[in-house]
Design a protein that fits this description.
With about 240 residues, this protein is α/β, with parallel strands linked by helices. Helices cover about 45% and strands about 15% of the residues. The strands form two sheets. The protein has a six-stranded parallel β-sheet. Strands 2-3 form a two-stranded antiparallel sheet. About 40% of the residues are buried. One of its GO terms (cellular component) is nucleus.
Length: about 240
């Protein structure tokens, strides 16, 4: 079957890039650098709790509530440390500012296996490419730092779009930016509901990156599953 695709849209986190170490470890290392002892495991738990609460209270970085994503993240970092026992406000501010910057850096992120090669090959094959990611405005800088930005005609974040996946409106914006109809486009991501199911609901093709040994989620036709990014080419070159 020839899919006749023109546009490929990509999720980023855990599809193209992943964190080199868990958040708790990064936060604890920064605290140590500032002379504070905080347990990485405790910080990791605090972060997950705070991130969840902040996401429910201020969805999509508080976009519709007038928050900036920077302020949203500084609050998350400070609250995570507070919950882990750090009370010094000056230290909290310093930690938050430093970590907000650190997460823009290629020291924090690494490419998933096959990412660079697959993106290069897709461009050689003439596909138009864009990013569709639930992320804040730092994403452009992160992709540049990791030497991936040049593969994409556009980088559409949920912050810029005003909608987060699985909301179909972010995919509609991406299709307009990529100049393609839904049936001419495919989305690649690692999340069943936000990436795979949401893109299909928008009328696009979709591929789900699902590493071997990952807990089996909902049933997906095997030809839509990518055990690694390198499997994409065989699926779209037919």
């Amino acid at each position: 079957t020839m899919l006749r695709l023109r546009l490929l849209t990509w999720d980023v986190k855990d599809t193209l890039l992943r964190l080199r170490q868990p958040v708790g470890q990064s936060y604890a290392a920064e605290a140590r650098a500032q002379g504070l002892q905080v347990q990485p495991e405790a910080l990791g738990r605090s972060f997950r709790e705070v991130y969840g609460a902040q996401s429910r209270r201020f969805p999509n970085y508080g976009h519709s509530q007038g928050l900036s994503s920077r302020q949203w993240w500084l609050d998350v970092v400070k609250q995570s440390f507070r919950l882990s026992g750090v009370q010094d406000e000056a230290a909290l501010t310093k930690l938050a500012e430093k970590l907000y910057g650190d997460y823009c850096s290629s020291n924090t992120w690494e490419l998933l296996p096959g990412a660079a090669e697959t993106l290069s090959r897709c461009r050689q094959l003439g596909f138009r490419m864009g990013v569709v990611s639930n992320f804040d405005s730092r994403l452009d800088a992160i992709l540049s730092q990791c030497n991936l930005r040049h593969h994409f005609e556009f980088v559409l974040t949920s912050e810029a779009a005003g909608f987060a996946k699985p909301d179909g409106r972010i995919f509609e914006q991406a299709l307009r930016l990529g100049g393609a109809r839904p049936e001419q486009a495919a989305h690649i991501g690692d999340d069943y509901s936000r990436d795979y199911r949401a893109a299909r609901a928008a009328g696009m093709h979709s591929f789900l990156l699902r590493a071997a040994g990952q807990a089996e989620g909902p049933q997906v036709p095997p030809e839509h599953v990518l055990p690694t990014l390198s499997h994409l080419l065989a699926r779209i070159e037919k």
